[in-house]
User: Fold these one by one.
Assistant:
Number 1:
Amino acid sequence: MDAVLTALGTMAAVVAAGWVLGRRGTLGERGPAVLARVVFTVATPCLLLVTVAHADLHLLLSRAALVTAISTGLVAITAIAVLRWVWHRPVDDVVIGTLASSYVNAGNLGLPLAVYLLGSPVAIVPPLLFQLLVLAPVAFTILDRRSQPREGTATPVAGPPGSRASTTPRSVAAGAVVVRTLSNPIIVGALTGLVLATVPWHLPDVVFEPFRLLGAAAAPMALLTFGLSLAVPRSTGEQAPRSDLVLVVLLRSAVHPALAAAIGSALGLHGQSLLAVVAISALPTAQNVLVYALQYRRGQALARDAGLLTTVLAVPVLLVITAVLG
């Protein structure tokens, strides 16, 4: 467990540094937004490209991957059902709330946790790839679609001076959304890595080095962004709806690991394999969710507070899981 505690302590130190920078105003009012944009458009795509390109895609066909997909899907569906159909939250806020409920910190905490439990980081690959190749693209498709101007079933297009506005057919508007979604830096990085992982030949390591160097900045910059966001006074900053926050934290820290344990047991996982799947499902909300919220300017407070609370709860939850299943 020392590796997990070390990872948590390291993350806390970087977040604290971001908080100090925010309180001192070192980066100005736009600091969090600028850092989030760099992480979103440069660092994270590079990290995903290198990670997916070197991943063993056969792990996506394992029982552990199936447990990850089913349990994560159930958590996401529950979040959507409550946030949208019961509480009638705006679609953009539902997307961020769903990500905060189902998108775990697979990189910063997942890797040391997998090494501690199994002596290998292999266990973190299925949830990492599921998040990169399924959750993120679906979320960005919806967010990009929502950010497009809509008016009925057609998009107004300005014409020459004095002329009436024309409209773009739904099919053309849908095509524009597809193009924009496929131009999303996160999706471009993940898809490029997926292509490189499936081709029968391999690029030399020297080609990956610039991407690896830039990708290494993704985690610390996301943590700095998180710390900067925490420095905003509560009286002036956006407040997350308490009910939404409670729902997200419960789904992230309690419901998801419980589902993973039940589904994993039903599918025949046991011992360290079951322990690894359940423990990974109990990881806190990834800081990247806050980066996405800042990028799309929706649900920032929910992403920030969920990341903080689930990280604080991660230690006792992981200790309980290890004691019960270890």
Number 2:
Amino acid sequence: MFMRTVDNRWKVFSLLILLVSILLWSFLDMREEEAMLKSLVQPTSGLAERVATIMLSWHSLELLSLNKTQSLWAGYGNICELTARATTPAAARRMRDIYGDIGVSDEDGDETYALILKLISPPPRQAGTEDEGHLRKIMSYEVEQSFYSAIAPLLGRDLPMARCIAATQGSPGSDTPEGLTATIMTDLRLDYPVAGEKRAVLNETQAHAALDWLSEFHKRSWRMLPLPLQELLLPPLEEADRRRRGDTLGRSAWLNGGYTYLATRRKEYGSLAADSASEWSSALCKPLAPNGYSIAELVANFLTPRGRDHETLIHGDVKSENLFTTHSGLGVAFYDFQYVGLGLGVCDLAKLFTCSIPLDMLTDNDGLAELLMDNGERRLLERYHDNLLVGTSKVYEWDTFVRHWETALVDWLRFQASWGFWGNTEWLEARVRSILKDQGWRTWLDEQQSLIDQETGSLARN
């Protein structure tokens, strides 16, 4: 009996040792596999050099040096500085003809160029685990590359922005590694050496220059419209579903510019609606009679692009971090066009005013719970509005523009309240409290909804 008990205990002990060994082996094997995957897909300097060399060769350019300067969000890739040289006189002439005087002659008389490589190589994911955030990022890089390749050249060389030298998109048969998205473009810092800081405010000169750039960008984009809607990207989950059905047309820009609109932020909106501690839960998310839709949903429905006369291409992520300026601050160049798409220009202004404009340029009455449009805010809007219309035949009445502006502020606050506040948040909240209490705005919003209902036959949920 004693021997049988010992034997049973030994069997149990042996099984435990075996189980622990299997678990340990599985863990180590998984870590090794993960490390191998990362080594294959993470953009190392060697991979970046290979990609840059191949892409430059398409235009008879030679890579001289490469330096990684920045990692992209969540390990999705890198940004690198390049120095390249034209290998033939014809290549040098082509660079001058297309991109202007961006070359510098070296001691041998060859022209060299300071360029930027944006290399996208997403971290590995198992099939079926592509969430909305991942899809949004991947598609945004497609949009940005398409913008630099196809849209930016149509806006005129005198509008300051980077120019595309080479792109993997639209290069069938190119021998760049599969699964990578790469764009080589001119380096803005040659003419605009001062970088905007993360979550920093601009000075007055820079703020005016940023407004002037945006008004010019929006004005020139008007000339390109209408765009073929079937070539514009739907919200990420809808676009992914469309592509699974074999429709891959969506590439050139987002149907709805930006990344904060309600159709792509339903999860965050649901969290805000359930947050009884937030004043904005009831103010923005409470269903209203007679149709049961909230203020946030009515606002989002109005802002959804439908081919209206005042819609244009918006940048979609306007902030100080996404621009360079001259030393004087009189000149500004924006970059990072991942979320360019259709929309009202005031949607770009809402983020700029909240996140990058000094508060004292907006109001002298900070700290108030409710705030009407103050003189500073009005002056900035008038500057933008005047510049937007000069030299065009467009009609954009001031009162209509202000209603659009107020609606964009409400929509921007909805995103901040559900995601997290930053910037001139007290000003933004005070302005939106005032807007929500304005019966004139509420009546106008209802009228806009009635027009939409007449066009569509029903209220489209965003």
